[in-house]
Amino acid sequence: MDAHGRSFPERLAIEEVLRWMRGAFLNDHHGFGHAPDDCFQRACDILRTQAESALAHCALRGGGTLDRPAALARTREVLAELARARPAIASLIASDVQAAFDRDPAAHCPDEIPICYPGVRALVAHRIAHVLWQLGLPVIPRLMGEIAHAETGIDLHPGATIGEGFFIDHGTGVVIGETTVIGRQCTIYQGVTLGALRFPTDDAGRAVKGQRRHPTLEDGVTVYANATILGGTTVIGAGSTIAGGVFVTESVPPGSVVHAAKLDVQVKQRRSAP
Fold it and tell me: Would you tell me how many other CB atoms lie within 10 Å of the CB of residue 207?
């Protein structure tokens, strides 16, 4: 609660939710010896109180009254929908784990993927947060994304739509904006930004909400390190490869290879040591 006695979700509690959710979806690698069903139930038990607080706080901030029965009823609906989405979430996470193992030659054992790959840890949080975002739960999906960001260096907005088999290699410095759409079996490397080129503002200079401003990656796209792709109308066609370090603000057709002009690299012989 804040200084006025109003409810608000607690970061430490949401960290616990994510810890138990990882136990539920990552074959118990983060489950402390508990069965996946038990992990999922523990996560939902914590989430129930936090969701009720988020909904009640949102009503107050919007000028309404603190209607706890209504917040509790909506919380039950959200948790029921999350439980129904559990098989689909599990399938997506399994595809992300498999993608990491299949595409990284440094991966020698499937069991190392859930505990050693920050991209997978970030994606577990995102897969759950995205469902809650779609259900209209306030605050908590963003908080989940920011907790994963702090843990992994990967900034995934819960509004981003990401298809199956997504692999984020290394991951540090990756930024994926709210209205990004990523197709199936895509791969991106560290330092990649999928961001906004520009966004409109109102007469008071405030950003206009809810408009499409981030790019689309169609199926099978690979984006190498430190590339930047911007704009809500920018579409990277299926099967394309974006080279490292390039800056893309226009759509490219399927099967493209986008790279910068070759640098003039010079090699000089050092002077002999005295």
Answer: 11
Binning pLDDT at 50, 70 and 90, where does residue 31 land? low
User: What is the residue-wise DSSP string for 54-119?
Assistant: HHHHHHHHTT----HHHHHHHHHHHHHHHHHHHHHHHHHHHHHHHHHHHH-TT---GGGHHHH-HH
- Residue 68, both tokens: 């706890």
Q: Is residue 59 part of a domain?
A: yes
Q: 12 and 144 share a domain?
A: yes
* Per-residue burial over 113-148, b = 16 or more CB atoms within 10 Å of its CB, e = otherwise: bbeebbbbbbbbbbbbbbbbbebebbbbbbbbbbbb
- The residue assigned the tokens 């138990």 is 20
3-state secondary structure of 27: coil
- Residue 32: pLDDT band with limits 50, 70, 90: low
Q: Are residues 234 and 120 in the same domain?
A: no
Query: What is the arithmetic mean of pLDDT over 66-93?
Result: 92
CA 179 to chain centre: 12
Residue 9 has pLDDT above 60, yes or no: yes
Which two tokens mark 224?
Answer: 């190498």
**Is residue 228 a part of any domain in this protein?**
yes
pLDDT digits (tens, 9 = 90+) for 201-240: 888 878 888 889 999 999 999 999 999 999 999 999 999 9
Question: Structural domain of residue 70, as residue ranges?
Answer: 1-154
Residues 46 and 91 in one domain: yes
Contact 176, 194 (CB under 8 A): yes
